[in-house]
Amino acid sequence: MNVFTMLREQQRPVRAPRPLVILGLVALLGWLIWQPMVSAPYVNFDRSMVLVFVVVGLGLNLLTGLTGQISLGHGAFFALGAYLSATLVNEYAWNYLAVVPLAAVVAWALGYLVGRPVLRFSGLQLALVTLSLALITPSIIKAFDDITHGQEGIILDTAEPPGAVGLERDQWVYYLCLAAAIATYVVCQRLASGRVGRSLIAIRDNETVGATLGVRAAVIKTRVFALSTALAGVAGVLYTWVVQFVGPDAFGLTLAITFIILIVVGGLGAMPGVVFGALFVVYVPTYTASLDQSAAGLSFGVALLFFMFLLPTGVIGLVRVIARGLTRGRRKGAAGRTTGDTAQESAERADREAALPLDA
């Protein structure tokens, strides 16, 4: 099997020794906690945006990557969470942390109501129906300008750190986003690796066969859709803490495309891949825009074509192929050393036997 074939096929995760995994996670967590203390505010801003995209990407990966339901309308629920946060904090003096559970519940309820009729479609039809949500979201925001302030948007001054923690605002927001991203990852990974995940994969691969095995496809798809919209709503709240501004132009078609590119680049169906996808959608456009303003959109288009045709398993697929190759190399090396040691021991034993005196 050549490399290109391996890159196009789904690769199972490489199982590392448990102590090594725990050590790696502790080291990574320590690095994530320590870095904001020694980084500039703009660096913490970018990292916080990565974590925001991780939250929404994990939910969308459950829906699209595992269940196979393509949604281009999650930007609407992202906007719902953002405007709930901006309105309640600015107009009604809500505590910014109290908005998080409310946004999750409201987005979940709306997602459930929308998902019941919408998920009767599948494939291209579902993508087109949910695309309409992405197209009309900016218009709806502008239509309710008494609440949303229309095109002017809303400027926020929120998520100030408590005095007792001794942190700057950018550091405090980063840690809040990190906590939300870790909690979301744990929940989604548990769902994906358990019975629910197997049901989602059955729906994606063959819904008819899944139904014969007792998988209630309509119910499960609706609930997963609602869960993913709830996470999009929570991510919208986090977005307002980071950016401190909401406006209708931020929640249009470009955002919908960004969400899809996020999970495609990372790897459909792979939860760790969402992190790679979030890093891509935050840092690559920023870097390319510094070279040429028109290059930011071009980078998204080129990346989408590249990953769909040459690397459909995403960055996580490439990582798994490399890790599996290294693992096999170590095993072959160990086997070769063992074989060599055995041959040497046999030669030494033959020499000793040859040196013994013959019986008369």
UniProtKB/TrEMBL annotation:
Chief location of this protein within or outside the cell: membrane
Residue stretches spanning the membrane: 20-38, 50-72, 92-114, 121-141, 172-188, 224-244, 250-268, 273-290, 296-323
Bilayer disposition of the protein: Multi-pass membrane protein
Pfam families found in the cross-reference section: BPD_transp_2
Chain spans, region Disordered: 332-360
GO molecular function: branched-chain amino acid transmembrane transporter activity
A Gene Ontology term for the protein's cellular component: plasma membrane
Record localization: Cell membrane
Entry keyword annotation includes Transmembrane: yes
Sorted UniProt keywords: Cell membrane, Membrane, Transmembrane, Transmembrane helix
Name used for this protein in its record: Branched-chain amino acid transport system permease protein
Annotated source species: Nocardioides daedukensis
